[in-house]
Structure formats: C-alpha cells, structure tokens
Amino acid sequence: MATNMRGLTQFIADIRGARVRDLEEKRINKEMANIRKKFKGAYVAKIIFTYILGYKVDVGHMEAVNLISSPKYSEKQIVRQRRPRIVHQRLELKSAQGYLAVTLLMHENSEFLRLVVNSIRKDLDGNNEIDNCLALHAIANVGGSEMAEALAEDVHRLLISPTSQTFVKKKAALTLLRLYRKHPDVIPAAEWALRIVSIMDDPDLVIGFSLESILVIEHEYSATYAYYKVPSPWLQVKLLRLLQYYPPSEDPTIRSVLHQVLQTTMNNSAEPTRNVQHNNAQHAVLFEAIGLAIHLDSASPLVGTAAVLLARFISSKETNVRYLGLDTMAHLAARAESLEPIKRHQSTIILSLRDKDISVRRRALDLLYSMCDVDNSELIVGELLRYLKVADYALREEMVLKIAILTEKYASSYKWYVDTILQLISAAGDHVGDEVWYRVVQIVTNTEDLQEYAAKVVFEHLKAPSTHESLVKVGGYILGEYGHLIANVPGYSPMEQFHVLHTKSQFCIASTRSLLLSTYIKWVNVFPEIKPQLVNIFERYRHVLDAELQQRACEFYALASRPDDDELLQNVCEEMPPFPPRVSALLGRLNMKHGDTEDKRTWVHGGMEANLDRDLAKRKADAVAGDGQDILGSLSGLEISATSTESGGTAPESGSSTNPPRLTTGPSVDRWFDKLTYTAEGVLYEDDQVQIGVKSRYQSHLGQLAVYIGNKVSAPLTSFTTRIHVSDPDALSVTFAKMPPSTIGPRTQTQQLLHVECKQMFTTPPILSVSYLCGSHQTLSVRLPIVVTKFFEHVKLGAADFFERWKLIGGPPREDQAIFPIDLNNAGQLDIAKNRQVVSGHRLNLLDDIDPNPNNLVAAGVLHMSVEGKVGCLLRLEPNREAKVRCYSQYIGMLS
Fold first, then answer.
1. pLDDT for 661-670, tens place per residue?
2. Which residues pair with 758 in a beta bridge?
3. Binding residues for a 1,2-diacyl-sn-glycero-3-phospho-(1D-myo-inositol-3,4,5-trisphosphate), per the UniProt record (predicted)?
4. Which residues are annotated as a binding site?
5. Where in the sequence is the domain holding 876, given as residue range(s)?
6. What's the CA gap between 235 and 231, in Å, rounded?
7. CA angle at 721 for the pair 628 and 746, rounded to the nearest 5°
8. What is the 8-class DSSP label of residue 229?
C-alpha cells in the first residue's frame, strides 16, 4: 500500500509542477492511459484527484464498488501518518478510498449505486465503528430514494441500538434527518418517533434546559467537555437557541431555573479575560443567553442587565463582539415595548454605519431600521440618506428599501414624505427598484391633498442637470396626472413642464419613453395650447424601430388628431382612480432580499410592530394549514398597501368582528348620514368631544374615503383605535391605508384613508367604530356613507332606448317599487331642484325630455362591480301631490 501511495504522491507532485495547462493535461492523459491498462487500488486515488481537478472521468466506477466491498483495511481506507505541530505522532484517518470515489463519482440516480447497497448494509451491520461511519457518510451524501428505501431501516437500527457508540449514533441521527428531508415519504417518522425520543435520556445526547442547568449552575461535567474553562460551549449555544423556538413555559419552576441559568451566564461573562479563545466561547454563550432572555420576557430585569452589557459590546475594539452586540440589540429592538434603553446609544449605533467591517455596518443598518419610531424617524432617515451616498454598493439596494419603508411608515407630514422620497430617488440612482417609485405614485394618487405639492416638487427635481431615470418616471406619471394643478403658477406653465420633461427623454430607455408618451396624451387633453408640439412628438415616434413605442405613438397620434370636442379623448385621459388595497411591494421585496436560512430566526428586523405582524401572519398560516393564496395584486402594475383595520394590530380583511356593533344614536346622526349618501363631503358625526367628517371620491368599482377625526377638547384623546365592520366582506371591501395614531392631540385632527372596493351587490353600509380615553373610555359607532349608488356611472339614453330597456326588465325580482314621503319647500310646493340634486348625487344621469310629466325624474346609470361586472340601472321618480306628497320610485336593475 505504501508503494502504491508513493505513486499517487509522485502523480500529485507532477501535476503541481506543471508550469502550464497543456503540460498538466498531457500528464493527466498519460496517467489515465496507464490506469486503463492495469487497474490497481492506488489508481482509484489518482482518479479521484483527477476528478477534483475538474477533468472528466469515465473509468473507475466498478473498481470503486469493488473497493467498498473489500475486507482489506488498506483498500477500504486511505491512512497516512503525519507529524502534528504538537509533540507527539498520531495516526489520522483521512478518507475512505472506495467510499470517497463513490460519493464523488456517482450521483443519487447512478446505476452503479444499486451495486453497492449490499456492501453498505454489511458495513452498517458490522461491529467496526469506522465502517459504520463510512457507510453513513455515503448514504447521507449520495443517497437517493432507492437507497433511502433500502437502507433507512438499517440506519434507524444503528441509531437506537444500545451497543452503538455515541459518535456513531450522532452520525446515524444526522443521516436519518438528511434522508427524511430529501424523501419524507420513505421514512415512517410517526412509527419511529417514540423510539427516537427515548434516546434523549442518554446522558451523552440529552437535550433541554436541565442539561444547561447542570453545566452552568452545578458544574457537573467532565474535563474533556471544557473548552478553555467553558463547559461545552457549542452544546450550550444549541440548547439556548433551541429554547427560543418554543413559546415560554408557564411553569414557575421551569421559569425559575431558566432565570437562574441566564443570570449566572450573564454574571460569568461580565468581565472579559486576556485569553481570546475563552472570551470567544463565553461570548457565544452569552449572546444566546441574552437572546433567550429577550424571548422569555423583554421587560424582565434580566433584559435590563443585558441592555447594559450590549451597550458596552457595541463599542468594543473586537470586530466580532461589535457585530454580535449590534445583532443582539436589534433582537431587543424587535421585541421590546420601549426603545428608550437603545436610544441612549443612538449616536454610537449611527457611527457604526462607518465601521471598517462591512458586516458590522450591515448590522448597524438593521438595528437603526428596527429602532426607528415616530420620535427619531427624521433623524435616522436623514442619517441614512447622508450615508447612502458613500455606502457600499452591496448595501445600497437594501438601504433604499429600508429608507422608503421608514419614510412612509413614520411620515410626520405628506410634504416630508415627498421631499424625502424624491431625495432618495435622486441620491440612490440605479439602486432604486421599481417598487420604490411605484410606491410614490400610489401614495400621491391616493392622497388628494398631496397632489399639487408633489407636482411642484418633482418638477423642481427634474430641473436638475442630471436626473436619474426613476425620477423621470415619477415625474412623467405625476405631471401627466396632476400637472394641470400647477399650470397657472408662474414658472410651471404647460410649456415649461413639457420642456423640462422632454429634454430628459433622449437619455431614457424605451419603456420610460413609452410612459412619457402616455404623459403627453394626457396633456393633449388638458393643455390644448401645447397640442401641436405634442402631436409632433407622436408623429416622429411613429417611425421608430421599437414596436411598443411605434404602436403607442400611432394610437396616440390618431387619438390626438380627432376633433377638439371629441369625448373619446376625454374619457381615455380621465384622471387615474385610487389604487385598490394591496400588500406593500416594498416589504415583500425586502423580505425576498433577506430570504431564509437553515438556522431561522424567531424574529425579524423592523421593531415590535413588524414582529407582531409576523407572529399574527404565522398563526394565520398555521390555521389554514397551507391553504394560502397570493394576496399581491396590481392595478397598472402598481401595488398599494392594506395594513391594519385596528390600531396596534393587523387584519388584512375588513369586518373582522362577526357581530355588528351597536350604532350611536343622536338627533342628527341619521340626517348627516342620509345627506352624505348623495354628497361627497360633510360632517358624519359630532358631539362635545369629537367631530368626524368625510370626503370621498369614486371611480368605477373603486373608491377612497378620507375620514377626518377632530379632537374638540383641550385634553388629548389617548388609546385611540378605529375598526371597520362590514356585514358582507365578499361583496364589499373596506380597508385602512395606514395605521391610525394612538393619540390625538388637543384641538387637533387626524386623517385616515379608507380604500373601498365593490365586489358584488350589497345593501348594508359598513360601520366605523371609534374608541378612546378622555376622562373615561368612550366608544361610538356610526354608519359610513358607502352605499351601492357610489359605484354608479352615468349613462346617456334617448327616449326610445330608455323605454325599450324598461320593458326588458320584466318585473320582479329585477324591478322594485317603493312609496315614501318627501319634503316640501318653504312655499309648500314640491322641491323639484332638491329632488334633482339627490338623484344626481346618487351618481345617476338625469335624462331630460324622456317623461311627458315635467315633475317626473328619469335617470340611468351603470353599477360597477369587480366580481359580477357591470349592471345597468334605470329609475323613474314620480312625485304625487294628490297622494299627500308621496313619491313613487322604481329602481330597475340587472340589465345586461
């Protein structure tokens, strides 16, 4: 064997001595020719070495099979002697020649594997522990479904055998786990579970907090388990991490022992020593102990002690200690109810963004993201924006996402949000993903009070000499939709808007120029004074080579060339409706970047709120047991967030309570509600403490409702929460666009945006419940003025068409008639003008000269529903003076 190994040694030396690739290949080919002529044991080692170098190997498979079944120790294994750096010599097992060849040269579907199953089973059943381990290695590394099915029983038997050595049991357990993960249908886990669990009573394999107690408190362990005076640190770390994956125990005895273990661990690690290895082992245990303390109770005195230790660690001279300190402090920020202990060290954490090690910089970014709240958001976002300009390229995309999320989440005003996010897009350049500029467009579109300011700010940014393409996209969309709001302001004329945007187009890719063409067709509709210039652009783009640009230009040219009074252009270029509620694409993108690891965390970056959301989502996912659905959606490619229907928690669907709340009554409550069913804005409720007003707009089956809640007293309204109840969520969806504040200051108001979607026909309006503390707990519930007529659209019909469709109704159930009293005007006459106002306010188109009686009102409309589609509706209102001022009304629906 020694002679054969000398041949291998010379072969390796020749390869290493080859000066160029050609000489190496020549030596390889010569050796492979020799191997094919006469095959010996050492030749398998040469084949393995050749394969490792990256050369294709087509021989040696059968010889490897034969070597595995060989009873000779020298052929089954490669053993060499070496002189360690310490004082004695020892025999080191390097690998098994036959097994190594099998694991390298064969894959799990190789036909040769069937030939080695019996040999592997023989080694599993043998009394030689080394043979046992070699066989287990081969199964774990190569084993396909056939090998798992054939040998799983033997692996299991080796695991539970009382005669197996501890290290063999460990390898058998790992092998069985690997097989179960790859082929769960082959492993009868339910049948084997009890026998496997019973192995935990083995003193060498026991797992649980009791062993931690033995190691840390009682110091009952063999000296061979001590690593630089730290008892089995790797096992301690595993046990402390394992306990974090399960809910904290309610047993007071267990909690007491755990508290004692954690307290002792923190005390033992309080002061570092001069021995680096000892410190490393102690710190590894300490940081996991802190993690477990946070998991058990983030408000406990132990965590207060941990916060003091972490403050010292993040300023340590040791890079690894700084890294672990920042990471563990991020865990604390993710679970703690109060961030004040962490905020005391905010300046140190910000300085860590400029640490010499990128891993530390990344952990500092995660911690700042997690510790951000309303009070420090502007400072942290400002620091992140400043650091973004000099940050590592590997960090910039993640930083952009986190800055965008924090800016939206903690925006103190809409203006601050727009200013910050546009600065972000300008500074980040190519690191801005589409999700970021999509999000800006969504928020501006869904916030009417922001649109004029956003148009001005984006125009100013576009005037810069150098502008990134993402900002051009934002500018194209916002100016196209809302440029008319600033057109009369000096310096923002239509021609100036066109000039500043079009000068950027020559540097943009085709998709961006396509978006700008859509901006121009919008301007054709609202800025007739620059129509010639816009039509000229369409004419030029009709001849470009890009198919998308050419087609769009041709269509827009034809549309713009129609008569000036053409209604088609006006309809096509109507303002975009509010975006429907959808999950934020920013958070989804950030989660995709983080991904999953084998050692999964029990928390996520983003503070306590994000972790509560994660826990809630996990519980819901567990409840449906895999019956999930993709809740990401888009309108024109853009997603909008649907966060919470209640302060302090998340509920992706409105109407989370099953029973409707009791409505608040009052002399004017019904009158306020009735008026808002046919008007867009007004007071919904008012008393001595609060006033609730609404402002709404609707487009097709979508709507947006702004609810203004004002505090009328000189004391703050605390513990403020809101909730929506929808009687039929399958027919109507109402969700909040943003979490409400928990406090409304004295004599101030807050605004909450509701996104509304009509899916099917509904009859019961949703209910808004508001609760707060102001001297005592107050709760009020009022109906929101969201009725089915809000989703109507005007229809023009002539007399012949109207009556023809009227006859097609065919009576009940598609026709309904109601008789009700109506009010008279001050002169005691029928108030025809008021009746017309009510009907048109219900978004029905009044059709004049249809009915012979001028007092009768005739109207038509189309109801838009996202699920059931469009349904035509006709109405006749017949005031009857002789019938004691009663009104005969017919609502006719279900017209296809």
1. 889 887 789 8
2. 732
3. 6-7, 38
4. 6-7, 38
5. 792-895
6. 9
7. 150
8. T
